[in-house]
Each structure stands twice: as C-alpha cells, then as structure tokens.
Specification:
By secondary structure, the chain is of the alpha+beta class. Helices cover about 50% and strands about 10% of the residues. A hairpin with a 4-residue loop joins strand 7 and strand 8. The longest helix has about 50 residues. The termini are far apart. Bound molecules: zinc ion. Zinc ion (ZN) binds next to loops.
C-alpha cells in the first residue's frame, strides 16, 4: 500500500506532525510517496524528507510571523481584531472590520451603572435573567473588566499595554475605574499610565445629541489635523479642532479658579486681624503689669506705715487683705 501526496507540505506544515504521520504510516506498512519530492526509506531519502518538511515548517513560521506583523499594525491603528464583545458589533468598510456599538450597548451601560451603584454581581445576573437575558457570572465579570468599553485595546501582542482604539466608547473612564476599584480595591487603577491623544473625549459631549465626542485625525494637504467630533450619524454638530477645544476647556476651568488678587486680599485681612489680636494681648499684658506694680507699691507703703506706727496690726491686716484681693 502507498499514500501518494502532491507535496510534503500538504501532509503537514508542522515538522513534528509530519514525522509522526510518516512514523505511523511506516508502522502500518504504508509507503509515503510525494509526486514532486522524490524520497524513499534509504538514509538519503529520510534526510531529504526531513529537509522538505523543515522547509515547510520554515514557510509556516514566516507566514505566521507575517500575520502577527499585520495584526500588530492593525492594533496600532486602533482596530480590535477578535470577537466583538456584548455591546458591540462589527461593521465592514473597505474589507476592514470596525467595532461599532450594537443594540446591547444599553445593557452594558446598565450593568456598569448598577454595579457602581452597589449592586452585587449575582443580583445583576438575576435581574437580567428575569428580563430574559442570560449573562453568567463569569461573563459579567469579564464585561466589567473589559477595557474595550472605554475605547481602549489591551492585547497580548503588546504585553497588555493599554492602547487607543478607534471605536466609540460605551462607558466613561470615571465609571469604569470606579468599577475596577470595587472589583479589586487594593489595586491603584487610576495609576495606569497611557498616552491619550484626545484626553478631552471623557469630558466633552455633543451639545446636539449628548453623546461623548470622539477624537480623530483628518488629513489635510500638508499635515494631519486633530479633531473632536460627534459619532452620531447625521448629527449636525461640526467637528472642533483639538487645539480650540483644549483652549476653550482651559478657559472653562479658569472660570473656577480663584483670582490672585482675591487670594492676596483674603490673606491681608487675616494678617491684619491677627496683628490686631496680638496688639490687644500686648496691651492687656501691659495693663496687668502696671496694676501689679501699683499694688506692689501700695503694699510697700502700708508696710512703711506699720513700721512708722501709723497703722495698728489690725489695720495692717485689713489693708493688706484689700490689696491682695
Ligand atoms: Zn451629536
């Protein structure tokens, strides 16, 4: 008996598998013949066969290295490449897949809201079950920890570093990190550092439809321009240049800050009032000292009068008591 194949690569691209199959065939007394690669059971034949499958393996490795490079590029460009989690679906444009919020996005929003409002995970699962939506505890836990919902990508290919996604976020950062704090209170989640090209997208909402704005670049003739824009289809809100948005945002923040002259004024008043109090205390102290000296002189005079014989012993005690009191 013989198994005739076109090429060894067709048997398996993995060298180990290829050898295992050949070993099995040999045990079953079946010959393996390749139409394009002549080899037999002689030492040279075995060597040639191993060589061919090594080449197949190399070809395979090169292919997957190429695939990983392609994936890394896509992730750097902000695209998620795996299954769309609950709340998102895939939209295809120019043969590329993009995450967009699905009808389940509201379910995700409710999960996060309930959770940071203090509901337990099993309670959330129960409530969804009552309304006919089955979410397991494990699934719920995964949802609550998924950075995709705040518009970030976290992948093994980049050592789980947080990177900016181009998809719309469903959950705002504050809500998400509150949830992380409840899930594991010991970790300092706010300390996670990542570069965000559009930091204001957490704060800016579209005045027309109340959704959070997204950030992106548009290509001008000579350079790229950064914009904050609304993600709602057909919304009339015009994109705002990032620089302008930041300027306006800082101006807004400034409106909350206390002006320097007001601070100085307050400090001066405090200083003046403290000075007055200090002066008062000094005056009181002076007066007390004056009084003490006065009394001391009185005492001395009384003693003199006793020595003179003007005062009797009784009068002395009476007068002294007056002074002491
Ligand atoms: Zn809008």
């Amino acid at each position: 008996d013989a198994l005739i194949i076109y090429k060894l690569v067709r048997l398996s691209r993995d060298r180990g598998d290829s050898l295992t199959i050949r070993f099995l065939l040999k045990k079953l007394d079946i010959d393996l013949k390749s139409v394009t690669e002549p080899f037999d059971d002689s030492p040279i034949g075995t060597f040639t066969a191993t060589l061919f499958s090594s080449i197949a393996q190399l070809d395979n490795d090169v292919r997957s290295a190429g695939a990983i490079m392609g994936m890394k590029q896509a992730i750097k460009a902000g695209r998620w490449l795996w299954n769309a989690p609950l709340g998102y679906k895939y939209k295809y444009t120019n043969q590329k897949s993009y995450l967009v919020p699905s009808d389940d996005a509201d379910t995700i929003r409710k999960i996060f809201k309930d959770f940071i409002d203090g509901k337990k995970q099993y309670e959330i699962c129960e409530e969804f079950k009552e309304s006919g939506i089955i979410i397991t505890r494990q699934h719920l836990n995964n949802i609550l920890r998924n950075h995709l919902y705040i518009g970030k990508l976290k992948t093994k290919l980049f050592n789980y570093e947080l990177m900016d996604g181009i998809h719309e976020h469903i959950i705002d950062d504050v809500t998400f990190y509150k949830a992380q704090n409840i899930l594991s209170p010991d970790k300092n989640h706010y300390n996670i550092k990542y570069k965000d090209e559009f930091p204001l997208k957490r704060f800016l909402k579209c005045p027309d439809c109340d959704r959070f704005l997204a950030g992106s670049y548009s290509k001008g003739r000579h350079k790229r321009y950064a914009y904050y824009h609304c993600v709602t289809k057909g919304c009339s809100f015009k994109p705002v240049k990032r620089e302008l948005a930041e300027e306006l945002f800082f101006a807004y923040l400034d409106s909350f800050s206390i002006k320097e002259d007001i601070i100085n004024n307050v400090f001066e008043k405090i200083r003046a009032s403290l000075n007055d109090k200090e002066k008062d205390s000094i005056n009181i102290l002076k007066n007390i000292k004056k009084e003490i000296t006065l009394l001391e002189t009185k005492k001395a005079k009384i003693e003199e009068l006793v020595i003179d014989g003007t005062f009797s012993k009784d009068t002395y005690h009476k007068k002294m008591n007056e002074v002491e009191s």
